[in-house]
Specification:
The chain contains one helix and 30 strands. By secondary structure, the chain is mainly beta. The chain has two domains: 88 residues, Immunoglobulins (Immunoglobulin-like, Sandwich), CATH 2.60.40; 275 residues, no CATH class. It has a four-stranded antiparallel β-sheet with strand order 1-2-6-4, with no helix packed on it. Strands 5-3-7-8 form a four-stranded antiparallel β-sheet, with no helix packed on it.
Length: 420
C-alpha cells in the first residue's frame, strides 16, 4: 500500500478562491437577514388616536384614528377603561385603514360626567394604541360657590346655603387655640343646606367653636378660578404606623403649588374620624401638580383603626390670589413648618396680598402626614397680613399634643360671600 506523504499546503490561488467564496456567502446571508429586519420594521403598524369628541350628554365618545404607517391596518376592537363598550360603530371610514387614511369610531358606554377615561384601540395584529380623555361637565350645571362662618357645638347644627346646588361639595375648618382637640363632622347634605357638629376623638364634650365652611358645585371648573370639587365613598382608614390610602386622579392639569381641601361629608358611623391627603407617591410630601393624582383616605390617627363607609369630599385649588365677587381671596401653601398644639403655635404664613382687616373665612388643611401619630390642621389666629395655623392630635393613646412640622394649605376670604 502506498501512502501519500506530500505535506505541502494549498496553493495561494486555491486559498484565495476559497476565501472569496466564503466572504460572498457571508455577505449574501447578512444581506438577507438585514433585509428581513428592514421588512419587519417597514411593516410595523403606526396608527394614532389623535382626538376624542364627546357627546353633549356624554352618552358616547368619537375617537379619531389615523394610519401614519406605510401599510394597511385593520382595527379589530376597542375598550374603555379595560371594559367592552356597549356599542362600537364607525361615523366615517371603516375598520380597514390604508396608509394615510383616518376613521372615526363611536363608542357608547356608561360614561359619567367630568371623569377621566382610557381608550384602547386594538388591531388585527394584536397591537394596542391608547388615548386618555376626560368627559365634559353636564352643560346644565353651572359653577356656584359660597363661603361663610358659623359657631357650632357637639350637636348637629343646620347651616342654610345662599345658593341652590345640584351636588354640593363641602369642606370645613375649626378655629381654636385652647380646649380639647376637635374636628368637624358633616351630615344631611341637601341642595340648600347641611348640618355640622364638633367632635372630640375621645367623646369628650366640646365647647362652642367657630368654623369656616366652603361649598362648591361638584365638577371641574376653569372660571372664575381654576379648581375641581369631588367626592367618593370609602372605608379605607389611615392610622398611626399604617398609612393606607386611596388614589384620586386630577380631572384637569395644574401648575405650581396646589391645595387639596378635604372633609368627611357624611355621618354613617358615629365614631370619630377625619381625613388626610398627601402626594401620590409619598405620605410625607404634599400633593404635586405634576403627578396624575394624590393620596386620600379616612384618618383615624391614634383613635380609630376601622370605620364604616363615609363620603369624603375634596376641593383642589391652584395657589393664587385675587378677588371673587369683589372680595379678596388668598390661596396658598405653607412651608413644612406647621407644628403641634403643644409646641409653640401659631405658625404664621404671610398672605400674598394684604387684607384691609383680618379675613373672616379661612379654610386650612394639612397636606401630608409626616407625624406618625396623625393629626389635622386648625386655624389658630388671623391678622390682615398672615394666618397662624397649628396641627392638633387626639389623646387616645397619650395625652401629648406635640407634632412634627407639616406642610399645610389655606384659602382665605375677606368676608362671607358667594359667586356668582
Amino acid at each position: 500500500m502506498i501512502f501519500l506523504t506530500d505535506k505541502r499546503g494549498l496553493s495561494p490561488v486555491i486559498s484565495g478562491i476559497i476565501l472569496i467564496a466564503v466572504t460572498v456567502a457571508v455577505a449574501i446571508a447578512a444581506t438577507s437577514w438585514l433585509g428581513s429586519i428592514s421588512l419587519s420594521f417597514m411593516s410595523t403598524e403606526e396608527i394614532q388616536v389623535s382626538n376624542c369628541q364627546w357627546a353633549e350628554d356624554s352618552s358616547y365618545a368619537d375617537l379619531t384614528v389615523k394610519n401614519f404607517g406605510t401599510s394597511r391596518v385593520v382595527l379589530n376592537s376597542a375598550q374603555v377603561n379595560n371594559n367592552q363598550p356597549s356599542s362600537v360603530s364607525f361615523v366615517s371610514g371603516d375598520s380597514a385603514l390604508e396608509a394615510g387614511e383616518e376613521t372615526i369610531m363611536r363608542l357608547f358606554f356608561g360614561y359619567s360626567t367630568t371623569t377621566k377615561y382610557q381608550f384602547s384601540v386594538s388591531t388585527s395584529k394584536g397591537n394596542n394604541f391608547f388615548y386618555i380623555s376626560t368627559s365634559p361637565q353636564d352643560s346644565s350645571i353651572t359653577f356656584k360657590m359660597e363661603w361663610g362662618t358659623t359657631t357650632i357645638a357637639d350637636t348637629f347644627t343646620q347651616v342654610n346655603l345662599q345658593k341652590n346646588y345640584v351636588s354640593p361639595i363641602i369642606v370645613c375648618t375649626p378655629k381654636y387655640n385652647s380646649g380639647v382637640p376637635r374636628t368637624i363632622r358633616v351630615t344631611d347634605v341637601t341642595s340648600q343646606s347641611f348640618k355640622a357638629r364638633i367632635q372630640n376623638p375621645s367623646g369628650t364634650s366640646c365647647p362652642d367653636t367657630q368654623i369656616s365652611y366652603l361649598v362648591v358645585e361638584e365638577g371641574v371648573w376653569n372660571s372664575p378660578i381654576k379648581l375641581e370639587a369631588g367626592k367618593y365613598s370609602t372605608n379605607t382608614v389611615a392610622r398611626k404606623s399604617n398609612w393606607n390610602y386611596d388614589l384620586q386622579n386630577y380631572q384637569q392639569t395644574y401648575s405650581g403649588n396646589i391645595i387639596v381641601l378635604h372633609q368627611v361629608m357624611s355621618y354613617n358611623d358615629t365614631d370619630w374620624i377625619t381625613t388626610y391627603v398627601s402626594r401620590r407617591s409619598s405620605t410625607s410630601s404634599p400633593p404635586l401638580s405634576g403627578d396624575s393624582g394624590f393620596r386620600i383616605a379616612l384618618n383615624g390617627a391614634e383613635a380609630s383603626t376601622t370605620h364604616s363607609n363615609e363620603l369624603v369630599s375634596y376641593i383642589i385649588f391652584e395657589e393664587s390670589f385675587g378677588e371673587l365677587s369683589g372680595l379678596k381671596f388668598d390661596c396658598k401653601r405653607t412651608g413644612d413648618s406647621v407644628q403641634g398644639f403643644s409646641n409653640s403655635p401659631p405658625y404664621n404664613t404671610a398672605f400674598s396680598q394684604n387684607f384691609h382687616s383680618p379675613p373672616l373665612v379661612v379654610l386650612a388643611v394639612h397636606l401630608e402626614a409626616d407625624g406618625g401619630d396623625g393629626g389635622w390642621c386648625v386655624v389658630h389666629t388671623i391678622s390682615s397680613t398672615q394666618t397662624g395655623l397649628m396641627v392638633d392630635e387626639d389623646q387616645e393613646s397619650d395625652s401629648e399634643r406635640n407634632h412634627t412640622s407639616e406642610t399645610c394649605g389655606f384659602v382665605a376670604f375677606q368676608s362671607e360671600g358667594s359667586f356668582p
